[in-house]
Amino acid sequence: MARWQAALARAGVTLDDRSLTSQALDFHATVEWVDNDGSFGEAFGYGTMSAQEQSAVADAGSALVLDLPVYLDAAAPALAALIGALGDAGALGVRLEQSKLGWSVAHWIRVLHSGDPWMLYRCAVVTLRDGDGSRSCGMHAFGLPDAQIQAPPSDADELLGPLNVYQLAEDPVLVSGDTFAPDAQTPRRRLERWPDDGYPPGHPCHNPFGVWRLGAEGGTADPRSDLRPVFIPALVAVLTAAEQNAGRPLRRDEVENLTDRGACIMMTHDDAKKLERSRGYADLEPELAWRQWQVVREPPA
User: Residue 51 and residue 91: Cα distance in Å, rounded?
Assistant: First the structure.
């Protein structure tokens, strides 16, 4: 560790057994040293590094795991500086745990400095296939929902990437009931936000901001009011506490009653999105509370 500490100190970064800090970076990261158990090469084995780069990673003695309290896009310049300092200290590559994608130090720096949302997206987000369905994984690295669709892979690729990059590049205010199409020639599809049912809470790939489910072709957008009700505290927190107090699963009528009686404030959609981002997770949709609560309380194994 002493060699790393000395090298990072030259870049104004302080590293100890538990944390990494820097006034220039304006954030505090917790750290953990992990010895190579023989899996390092495989961890970077998704075709994102050359054979030579992957071989060097496989022979590395240890890795530094960082828990960074920032979103990739918002902190891109600072993260590029940090990764550069880590590279100068001897780092060979960086893997994003939210999607398990790992790239060389030079590639990360190039992407973070590019300002290109498509490059950033491809660096951080992977598309997963499951039967007839496809879903993205990794958008929570930007504080945004992932997306999923039941469609052939070719159709899914033409929709998931553009929707996610649209979120990343334009930061639009999207709500359940809106529609999306990547261009004027493609039929629009209705969007509905759901809790992430791909990974259990606590798993690095679990997206606390949920997943956009794209409906069938030809979907029609719902009317949207200027304001929306926002539960304070969050509805998911209210239901969690109620179920813990009851010591049993809540019945449908109980969930619906708590939803109807929950304390709300009316906010613009933009302010509601900012609150969600600062809170770090999405709440349930009131109209879908019972069905979405089943997803939350019975997460995948």
Answer: 17
